[in-house]
Amino acid sequence: MAGPEIERLIQLMARLPGLGPRSARRAVLHLLKKKDALLMPLAASLREVGESIHACSTCGNLDTGNPCAICADPRRDETLLCVVEGVADLWALERSGMFRGRYHVLGGTLSALDGIGPGDLNVDSLIGRVAQGRIREVIIATNATVEGQTTAHYITDRLQSSGVTITRLAHGVPVGGELDYLDDGTLGAALKARRPL
Ligand SMILES: [Zn+2]
After folding, report:
1. Which end of the chain is more exposed for a tag (fewer CB within 10 A), N or C?
2. What percentage of the chain exceeds 90 in pLDDT?
């Protein structure tokens, strides 16, 4: 149907999340038709990012600078540290625009099933950051999954002697959510996490 270079491009695109072979083919055809407006700028951008991307040596975030833009920003509160599983979670929190502290990216969760232990995650570097003494509060924002909870407990144990305040994201009723539609687990968690008004 097409030459080997184009077929290779389609195969690579098909490996992106959310794209199958069919949609990859459509995306590539679109790129070929928009060579100057899209294909060439995309190629240049991919090369530029590809040559400069790395994990921040302080927090584990992926960025083109080291330290990353968040660690390098002097306006961000360095006494507040939010611990997340991955960069996707960091991006989600940044999209909310509600957090002005710094982050620590664990790079996954503890999982006995997958053989992932503390040594496979950025836990020691977290303990090291807290030990420097400037952090006042560590917010553990791991996912509300079994692995996420296990990881949160482990980190809490490790930080217990540091004297830092440890908090956890609340679980409960989503904004705009109706009680009748919530699953029992979410409703139970919301009830447990109730607070005085
Ligand atoms: Zn960073």
Report:
1. C
2. 83
Closest CA to 117 of 71, 81, 158: 158
For residue 158, the CA-to-ligand 1 centroid distance in Å is 22
Q: Kindly give the distance from the C-alpha atom of residue 13 to the centroid of ligand 1, in angstroms, as a whole number.
A: 29
Which strand (E) or helix (H) includes residue 32?
helix 21-33
Query: Looking at residue 67, what DSSP letter applies?
Result: S
Q: Residue 129, SS3?
A: helix
- With a cut of 80, say whether residue 27 has pLDDT above it: yes
Contact 120, 63 (CB under 8 A): no
Q: Ligand 1: distance of its center to the CA of 175 in Å?
A: 30
How many angstroms does the Cα of residue 28 sit away from the middle of ligand 1?
34
Q: Which residues on neighbouring strands pair with residue 137, listed in sequence order?
A: 80, 165
Angle formed at CA 171 by CA 169 and CA 173, multiple of 5 degrees: 130
| pTM to 2 decimal places | 0.87
Stated as kind and residue range, the H or E segment containing 84 is strand 77-84
